[in-house]
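Cross-posted from the bioinformatics board.
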Amino acid sequence: MEKRNKGALVSVVMGSDSDLEIVEDALEILKDFKIPYEVRIISAHRSPDEAIEFAKRAKERGVKVIIAAAGGAAHLPGVIAANTELPVIGIPVETEALKGMDSLLSIVQMPAGVPVGTMALGKAGAKNSALYALRILALEDKELNSQVIKYKEKMRKMVKDKDREVSRKYSFYSHE
Amino acid sequence: MEKRNKGALVSVVMGSDSDLEIVEDALEILKDFKIPYEVRIISAHRSPDEAIEFAKRAKERGVKVIIAAAGGAAHLPGVIAANTELPVIGIPVETEALKGMDSLLSIVQMPAGVPVGTMALGKAGAKNSALYALRILALEDKELNSQVIKYKEKMRKMVKDKDREVSRKYSFYSHE
Amino acid sequence: MEKRNKGALVSVVMGSDSDLEIVEDALEILKDFKIPYEVRIISAHRSPDEAIEFAKRAKERGVKVIIAAAGGAAHLPGVIAANTELPVIGIPVETEALKGMDSLLSIVQMPAGVPVGTMALGKAGAKNSALYALRILALEDKELNSQVIKYKEKMRKMVKDKDREVSRKYSFYSHE
Amino acid sequence: MEKRNKGALVSVVMGSDSDLEIVEDALEILKDFKIPYEVRIISAHRSPDEAIEFAKRAKERGVKVIIAAAGGAAHLPGVIAANTELPVIGIPVETEALKGMDSLLSIVQMPAGVPVGTMALGKAGAKNSALYALRILALEDKELNSQVIKYKEKMRKMVKDKDREVSRKYSFYSHE
Amino acid sequence: MEKRNKGALVSVVMGSDSDLEIVEDALEILKDFKIPYEVRIISAHRSPDEAIEFAKRAKERGVKVIIAAAGGAAHLPGVIAANTELPVIGIPVETEALKGMDSLLSIVQMPAGVPVGTMALGKAGAKNSALYALRILALEDKELNSQVIKYKEKMRKMVKDKDREVSRKYSFYSHE
Amino acid sequence: MEKRNKGALVSVVMGSDSDLEIVEDALEILKDFKIPYEVRIISAHRSPDEAIEFAKRAKERGVKVIIAAAGGAAHLPGVIAANTELPVIGIPVETEALKGMDSLLSIVQMPAGVPVGTMALGKAGAKNSALYALRILALEDKELNSQVIKYKEKMRKMVKDKDREVSRKYSFYSHE
Amino acid sequence: MEKRNKGALVSVVMGSDSDLEIVEDALEILKDFKIPYEVRIISAHRSPDEAIEFAKRAKERGVKVIIAAAGGAAHLPGVIAANTELPVIGIPVETEALKGMDSLLSIVQMPAGVPVGTMALGKAGAKNSALYALRILALEDKELNSQVIKYKEKMRKMVKDKDREVSRKYSFYSHE
Amino acid sequence: MEKRNKGALVSVVMGSDSDLEIVEDALEILKDFKIPYEVRIISAHRSPDEAIEFAKRAKERGVKVIIAAAGGAAHLPGVIAANTELPVIGIPVETEALKGMDSLLSIVQMPAGVPVGTMALGKAGAKNSALYALRILALEDKELNSQVIKYKEKMRKMVKDKDREVSRKYSFYSHE
């Protein structure tokens, strides 16, 4: 099984397809930047052998960065990081009761020895996981680096345009 | 009263019938595994005599594992554990204001001497309480043990099937 | 390696020998009750293959209950529970910064499908993990069950003795 | 046993004599106000029968207010309140790992039907439990009411004296 | 103004009429028990002079217990307690962002010297505030005491009836 | 760009126009008090150069107080405060997962050297940011000071009117 | 009493002289900038009349900014802000059990209508309270404004000097 | 200034030299792996121009990964990430009052657009920041990749050795 998906540079893994909605912005960004990626459903608890097999084979299949989303006692990013030497990016998924504080702490508080680069909770974190993967990949890819710079410039321009519009519309100067 | 319900191996107790919705997955699992169970409404605060009577008589009635769900200052699992020598499994129920952090700490932080095996908050915890009861009962029941193994295998297969489907549908390889 | 330690009914596992101090009361209780146990250092992150191998072989080696202590992003109890059908008892170990809230949530918030019976943080939880294992083992061991009842009775007597002593010494009645 | 201690108007209960240090200021205040009190060691978990017996008999023994201190999954105040119609005052005791957040929530978050008047964590709460008992007892005791007013006046004077001293010593006026 | 409302034994105070919905169960219980009460809108921050005037005059107007509901940086119960020697019961009101953790801590963590008997967050706490007031008033009112005992007995009966109904309907015994 | 908006005494800044809804009460208050203000969209992360430029030029453009609203890892108020010597008022915006606890701590916990006057979370904080700006501006503006006093008096009157209405409607005196 | 201390521009208030240690850096900064200040011990709970009298008279005595430090259910800054139209700066003092989370929320979560500019917990917050007062006072004091700019420049230089020293001492370049 | 330190692949930045103790394990690991690094003291708040200048020039100076440690309202990693396209790794430093929960949330909860790969709190996070940087650098450096694999193997061996020693010493088998 782990022989397929040749060509993916980024692997986006999650424990359940209910998390697809969370990561969709990450997938969109990767696609916009033309980074080939695979999307995988793997559970550290319900399919543990597959999780380990996946992590151990990822590098030899050409994957460079692994993004893993998980909620609750979120062990997936850590279990993957323990079985690969690739950089792993963790996305804590919001949970119903504890609002994702459980997910966040289960991912970010990794013990010394096995790091996971943790992003913000939920959709903002998912989006940033793709942008972080791009920053890593761009280190050895000048073309990609230019695109990242353009993307930042575009964000900046959007804020500036909005500033002009809002400033004009909402400011108030009639002082007496 | 405590003479009835002969035959139940698992007793599922909660303080109010409003918690029935939380534990229904637990009941379904126990039924699927053909484990006889009783469902009881007992309150550590509003019917304290009944709670203690229930706990003291459970073992002699043939009960082997007690599952207790409670929310807020959730004393039910602890009060039961104090009055029986059976293993007690606690399910913290989510609360409106504090989202169940109160329920969780009131159950899990039992002082040395009286243990409660605490599950996750809400429905995931309820489901797991049944699976944990099965793991305990399976220790001396080979047939049940095989069923537990099959259940785990089924979960694993479901994840793998989902993986294949999602991987095919969402991965993206057109790199240039 | 996993062939050794024949005879242990309880396996007490932790990620680092710095946790030995936390679990020592658990070991003492098990020894007092003459329950053979093994103590193991296994890390879900630093020795993941050993963790899975251990979990998969535990039942065939005769182990009935696994106690796992872990801190921070505490994945050990969950990773073990994912790879065995034995009941797993988790002890969250206090951490320096977050005081064990990270450990607690990483252990107790297991997703539906793979339960861990979670104890209180730190030494109280460690002691209770042994008492919980005893409650499970006593289900099919009348002699052990009598011992558990005696233990509870002893605790009760200690409280009553202390009550008498303190009440005599600290109460104050000179009202006018 | 519950026949003794005739004459106590306030009963100060705790689960372990290690909490004596926390409540000692409460005892001192009660003694200063000449309120007869008893001090009891009773555990909701380790001596549950005694806890219930105590709660059920307290009123007939002449007790008017019960102060209960407890830590962790702190069930003592709630269990007592469930078994008496007297007002119960709860003192959450600080815990090592969670700093008493567990104690506080286990006491204050009582479900509708069984109230516990909860004080601050630790020594401030203990001191206030005595002052709160005095406020209740003073409702029908004019002499005691005058003493409570004097106590408040004394506190006020102490603050004012300190204000004068500190203001003189630390203020700084040399402006240019 | 503070001369009116003669006859109220309990004063139920809140900072805004938006909290009326929270306390309505408390009012209903007091009415059921025929306890005369007044309802007041007073703010520690927006009408501070009225808050202090109210607190200082409450006792001479015949009030015996003050119930104060407040949310956020909830100073009302504490400010009232500082200006009266009557027992004050605090109800922390749930807030939108922090879910009432701010309200709870602002009320319960009173410094040594000025106690507030704090109830659970929201409606459960409101209901319990009335029941707690009843427990205090019943200390010198045998008739009221009997009513409180009957109320507890009624709650107990409701749980027992529900137990019978649920047990019959949801238990499962077909074991093979 | 930073030359425009001459005349604004208060600058209300936020990272995204989605926060406009949060600050609208602040704008309304400023307008009611006839304080000229500008509204700006500036992001510490997406338009960092603009943020710094804005902060450095604000004073010379005549701005006296800067109000900055931000959510999540909310760096905007701190970054602005680091680049101006004007007083900066921070409004933590509620977030979906962590309910604004992240926003609050990111703004209020500024290290020694660079202060931000932090308001409550969300709309209450926004409203108060305007009132706080007025208190600062009123220090040297007697007319404005009178208006602030009137505003406080109006709030007080509203509470008193509500008190009269609610007290009449909800109090209950038929004691027997 | 409130007639004394003529000349103070900043009033530094706290509930107990045990907080003097927390605010001493604030006093030192004010003294360094030659801002006349008074130091006062006033308690919202133990000397409530004094607190209100103080707040109501502060402006007419020439005070321009009030700094108030408080811990636990920290009502002092809010109670003062309710009784003055001056800007109030709050310093949440760390508490033993809850580490100041109670103090922080009791101060920052003020309801709409009465703002308190809240600083960080403890000594950093205290230091910043003085710097924030300076920023406010500097709005109409060019000389003071220059001093604030110089202070910021000095901080910056200290960081730069430290950077040079540390960079030289700890960097490592021997790459092959 | 930003011309110096040619040759550093990793830049380790912190706001104050008091954090040097936290990051020293990171420096040791980088040195062991012969990765040239620079150590910098830069503050987002006290030396903001330097922070931005540093971030903007880092890539052209040859830096590939930036590690930034910060505590409290920890803006440094985010401010740097906003001004570079290099991957930034954040280390939340434990704080006295809030134990680093403030630091963690201020770093990890970055809004969509500007990612920071966040590590665990304190020394474990610092150590992991170096290991994460190595994983990134090893993507294009086979020799380094082998070293990372060896490091993981060494950790594993240490756990296994400890397991053997502890298992022998602490297990207990005398069952009858």
